[in-house]
What we know:
- The chain is built from 2 helices and 13 strands; from the N terminus they run αβββββββαββββββ.
- By secondary structure, the chain is α+β, with helices and mostly antiparallel strands.
Amino acid sequence: MNTATILRTCLFAGALVIAICAMAASDSLHPQPAFHASIPAGYDILRVQPSGAVISFLGLIECPDLEGAQQVAEGMNARIVSTDGKSLTHFPSSFSFRITASLRKTILAEPTDTFTSQEKPEQLLLQLRFRLKAFHALEVREIQPESVQIIGVPSDVPSDERIYRINFNVENLPVTDRIVLEVLSPNGERLTKFHFDLL
Length: 199
């Protein structure tokens, strides 16, 4: 193999390595779909004993300050970038969970678990409680809601569905933390939970 052939081979190999590195960098920096002001948080279905009633829980996170923000990169390099190009290091200070608790068959799925309550199902929907937990490495702390509202049908009007808005105002909550809203029965038993994770 002469010198010219060796040189061409080296140049080709070098160009190939550069191209592969560029593609890898492009993939790692490719932004995820943008966040929106309203983020679905999932659902759960539970059966109440001894009444046999089935309650569907649907979660929605409301956080206008996240509208348009994006996750850039993944793994250890992952970060959240706002619409103005700045990296977000903390959760927005204000956000809400909107939790719908319904006796209507709104979801075509079987209950995942059961719990016991002597309350009438319609009355039980009015007595739900909520607890927010923030997980930072091995540390856990509880955050009290700023307010809890029943929206939609007023509480003094009979209904088989209730919608709660649980408002929070937090400070210095890193985006690497995991946030979990727990839905509790009137006696404090955890019924289900909804996650709010940014990274």
